[in-house]
Amino acid sequence: MNNPRVSVIIPVYNTEKWVGHCIESLLEQTYGDFEAIFIDDCSTDRSCEVIASYHDERIRLYRNEQNLGAAATRNKAIDLARGEFIAQLDSDDYSTPDRLEKQVAFLDTHPEIDICSTWYRMVDGEGRLLRTFENPTGPDDLKVHTLFGSVLHNSGVMMRREKFLATGERYRPGMAEDFDLWNRLAFHMRFANIPEYLLYWVRREDQTSTRLKHLQDESARQVFAETFDRLGIPYTEEELDLHLHMYLVQNFHFTRSQLKQYSRFLRTIFRAGCASGELDPFFLKKKIVRDYKRFHLMLYPHLLVSIQKRVFKFRLTH
What we know:
By secondary structure, this protein is α/β, with parallel strands linked by helices.
């Protein structure tokens, strides 16, 4: 039997209510050359029974003997994958019918790209639209954005299996394991986002990332620190905390004094980032100037910010 071209890996833990919709979104795909690897991480609900009720030879169901956590379960699924491409999908999310077809076509026509994800819609547990996300699309722009937040949605990722395995990178335990992996892979592989909404991300109040937001923020802080260290960007603990709050803490009310301090740190990021040789100066400057303006408009009138931005941009030299 020939190996499928795409291996979709789906870790499962207590998603009885949603995993059926996830499966149906796979079975409705216009691209059929795939296997769906479900690994149940010791669910205490009927998740396994729901998966087993679907009779399709492309569905492969495994059960962990003990709870391993999301990172180890994803790694186990990667080891079981046989496809040329590995696609990710969380068991409470779902894809549009043409997602796999469009991602395979994109990677076939863009051999220089190793990982692609997509724009996506965030919906609630009832499928109601909450907001949309349009991340940058090009590899140089995306690499710059790793300094400021997650650039790929885990559930929307498709990557070249052999290229990924050659990096030696894997998921590490933690509350931000996907953010952590993409930031490490950004130094080995080239990213892209397809500018189409091919994924629905289901946001629930009982999700671990929602319930334990403080632990997720601490994990993200460590990812930022490792990324800065890798690029040789100097920082103080206070600057690192401020960076985390500016980008990942919702409704963070910073002061003018904090904004002044952070503006200085943005200049440090620009100089050291350019000096590293890893980041494109054009996209780094574009990102920093845009965020400088966005942050200042929260505290200052528009006319003053326009003047401040020109001065700030003039001072950005490497």
